Amino acid sequence: MLTVMALLGNIIWFVLGGVWMGLAWWLVAIVMALSVVGLPWARSAFVLGSFCFMPFGREAIDREELTGRGDLGTGTLGFLGNVIWFLVAGLWLALGHLAAAIANAITIIGIPFAVQHVKLAVCALAPVGKTVVPKDVAARARRRY
After folding, report:
1. What φ, ψ does residue 62 adopt, rounded to 5°?
2. Which phi and psi (to 5°) does residue 17 adopt?
3. Among candidates 50, 43, 115, which has minimal Cα distance to 85?
4. What is the overall mean pLDDT for the chain?
5. CB 66 within 8 A of CB 135
6. How many whole angstroms from its chain centre is CA 23?
7. Is the distance from CB of 130 to CB of 66 less than 8 angstroms?
8. Percent of the chain having pLDDT more than 70?
9. Residue 123 confidence (pLDDT) above 90
């Protein structure tokens, strides 16, 4: 459940440019899905693209951290998938988020949005094996370990 501040942050984020990076993620996801070979990356790109539209009140965490057990995307194959992702699309999405972060950081009001873009840039470098959950769920998962 979103708090009022998270909802307000998401609305401002969306209007001031979050929509463009979300669409960029989804464009990459569509290209990956159309290539058929890129289907494993398409899922991660759609999940994080949706997160990019409304990031406040939610957090991207490793699935292994959430569930307490590894899976296909959190092991060696996930690492290899992230290396390929980085070379094909991750670097470019991360640079887009960093450019948006710099543009947002120019104003005091934009600083929280710049921080969010930097977090998304880190996710753009290695999205395979990540999932998006509400902040309280992420906090509970981290307390377990």
Report:
1. -70, 140
2. 130, -10
3. 43
4. 89
5. no
6. 12
7. no
8. 97
9. yes
131 phi and psi angles, rounded to 5 deg: -140, 165
Q: Give percent of the chain with pLDDT exceeding 90.
A: 57
CA distance 88 to 82: 10
- Encode pLDDT of 14-52 as tens digits: 888 889 999 999 999 999 999 888 888 898 899 999 999
- Are 96 and 28 contacting, i.e. CB atoms less than 8 angstroms apart? no
Please report the DSSP string for 18-58 in residue order: IHHHHHHHHHHHHHHHHTSTTHHHHHHHHHHHHHHHS-TTE
Residue 16: what residue type?
A: L
Residue 68 Ramachandran class (φ > 0 left, ψ -120 to 50 alpha, else beta)? left
- Classify strands 130-134 and 58-62 as parallel, antiparallel or unpaired: antiparallel
What are phi and psi for residue 60, nearest 5 degrees?
-95, 125
Q: How far is CA 83 from the centre of its chain?
A: 16
CB atoms within 10 A of CB 37: 9
